[in-house]
UniProtKB/TrEMBL annotation:
InterPro entries: Aminoglycoside_PTrfase, Kinase-like_dom_sf
Domain of life: Bacteria
Boundaries of every Aminoglycoside phosphotransferase domain copy: 29-327
Keyword Kinase: yes
Pfam families in the cross-refs: APH (PF01636)
Stated name of the protein: Ser/Thr protein kinase RdoA (MazF antagonist)
Any GO molecular function: kinase activity
Keyword line: Kinase, Transferase
Length: 418
């Protein structure tokens, strides 16, 4: 999308930061598979005098609110003084600004975090180390020097400012206190209600795999209609979406009433706690399995966490939101050497909380909320992807195989709820 010369122009804002105080280094710029948010990521390898340093150049569409980016950057920069797992955006040569605007995008540069994500069937002690890393980041985000007034949440890019307590929540909860409930409760109560109508509408759409696969090739920017490989991956995704749609229409109204009731109960139980303790703090809010990188496996010692990245969703919420997101990305079964799925009483949430509690406190109420959120996240995300791609014809800057991998995991997760 961007030429090499164009990216060099962007990098000139940080040229000293990438290692060239007096002469230009040899720069190798490699595009990296982007996330689901629409941003662009490039790895920049700067070699000077046989020494190579790597950086991550990130570009967000100009529609991303600049004020929000600035607030998140300030918080991450401050937090990085207390936690070396974070990779804060760097200031420019002649300006303290950590971002610039060019080619219709906002750009930031940060150090490149080496490492690999854990597999979905990772060991419990590895999952726990991820939980500990989340705890360390939470501590750094909320040190006294880094704490701001929390009555104003950062406005999400996709949402207009609205009262945090939804009108969909029972009047008893909405009127019980002027304190605000964690977004992980209010947002999901709202979204499950919205998805109920959306899932019901799926019956009115054509579920032909051939027709859907052709549409997907035009909805996903990484795919090309008529390319044999793209056609194959889009067909696989179409088959998974049809399977997801059938499951949702069959089980949505069976499962979601219980989940809504549990979310409501957590909201009710929170009311007496407002006077005793703060239920919200600064958290990442989108810490998936691929966002915490570990060193490669080694026989002689445990794998250590190398870093945590992707801070786009940083906001005020319950720590349970991050714990649930991380734990929910791991399967509760593992594959044996014979290739059989073997249940080993694995509870990724318990492993995550054990690691988190080595650093931060985590109450029973937060544990119960996280347990509910794992189930809500699974069925809600499956509902999101299915309605986005089938009913709403949304476009995404990712490949069909990446979305299909996510959907397959979600289907397996929701099937365990039944």
């Amino acid at each position: 999308m961007f030429s090499h010369d164009g990216l060099l122009t962007v990098l000139s804002h940080w040229m000293t930061s990438v290692g060239a105080p007096s002469q230009e280094p040899d720069l190798r710029i490699t595009p990296v598979q982007p996330g689901f948010s629409g941003g662009r990521v490039y790895r920049v390898d700067a070699t000077r005098e046989e020494e190579t340093t790597s950086w991550a150049l990130k570009g967000w569409p100009s529609s991303t609110p600049r004020e929000r980016m600035a607030k998140i950057s300030q918080r991450i920069v401050a937090a990085s003084q207390h936690c070396d797992l974070l990779a804060p955006p760097l200031p420019g040569i002649k300006s303290s600004r950590t971002s610039i605007e060019a080619f219709g995008h906002h750009w930031e540069l940060a150090r490149w975090i080496t490492g690999i994500p854990l597999p979905a069937d990772a060991l419990d002690d590895e999952i726990a180390r991820g939980g500990e890393a989340i705890g360390r980041v939470h501590l750094a985000l909320n040190t006294d020097a880094n704490r701001e007034h929390q009555r104003k949440l950062i406005e999400s890019p996709s949402m207009q400012e609205a009262p945090l307590v939804s009108t969909l929540i029972s009047p008893n909860v909405a009127n019980a206190s002027s304190s605000r409930l964690p977004r992980c409760l209010t947002d999901r109560l709202n979204r499950l209600h919205q998805l109920t109508a959306a899932v019901a509408s799926l019956a009115g759409y054509d579920h032909s795999v051939d027709i859907l696969a052709t549409r997907l090739a035009t909805q996903l920017t990484d795919e090309t209609l008529g390319d044999p490989t793209s056609d194959f991956h889009c067909r696989q995704l179409a088959e998974s979406l049809v399977e997801a749609s059938i499951w949702l229409r069959r089980y949505w109204n069976v499962i979601t009433p219980g989940l809504l009731e549990r979310l409501q109960r957590h909201a009710n139980d929170a009311q007496p706690m407002f006077a005793e303790r703060r239920l919200t703090t600064w958290v990442l809010r989108d810490v998936h399995r691929e966002h915490i990188l570990f060193e490669p496996p080694k026989r002689d010692r445990p794998r250590s966490v190398q870093g945590v990245f992707d801070y786009d969703a940083v906001d005020v919420d319950s720590p349970a939101a991050d714990v649930a997101r991380w734990a929910g990305d791991f399967s509760s079964t593992v594959n044996s050497a014979l290739g059989l799925s073997v249940h080993q009483n694995r509870v990724p949430l318990e492993a995550t909380v054990a690691g988190y509690r080595d650093v931060c406190s985590f109450s029973k109420w937060e544990f119960d909320v996280a347990k509910t959120l794992i189930e809500v996240n699974s069925i809600g995300s499956l509902g999101n992807w299915t309605t986005w791609l089938i009913a709403e014809n949304r476009h995404f800057p990712v490949s069909a195989s990446r979305i299909r991998s996510r959907i397959i995991h979600l289907i397996a997760s929701v099937c365990r709820i039944c």
